[in-house]
Amino acid sequence: MDYFLLIISILIIFISIAIFVQDFKDRLVSIWLYLSLFIVSAAYWYLYNSSEIVLINYILIFSILVFLSIYIFIRFKSLNIRKYFGLGDMLFLCSVPPFFSSPYEMVFFLIFGLIASLVVHLVLAKTFVRKNIETIPLAGYMSLCVPFFVLLNHQVLWM
Hints:
This protein is mostly helical. The protein has helices at 3-26, 31-48, 51-76, 87-95, 103-127, 138-143, 146-153. The termini are close together.
């Protein structure tokens, strides 16, 4: 087994759990966690992915954020995207593209991550009733999906 992959996998798990806990508790994540995730994803990219794939994944994320901004402008007549989609969510989405070895995996992660985020939020909202919940910790919920995709991609879970 590749020891670098094992170290990267352990770091991804710890960073993802830390992002989830901070985002769920405070609706605020330390910039150091996003920077750590970005550094780990850069190491992963350097060791396991090609530059072309990562560039395509970043173009995909950028396109989604542009279309999201256009949608928010048309729907809510507001250019304030941060009111509807947090800066932490954007930083998280900009940190994860190097983990995926194809744009299809990236799209599958986004779809699965958003659906899982919705389900987890509905369950936790019923379990931990908090008054006046106005925001969803999207980066926190999606960060729980990243380790599974990386580990399944390399079949670390099956070794």
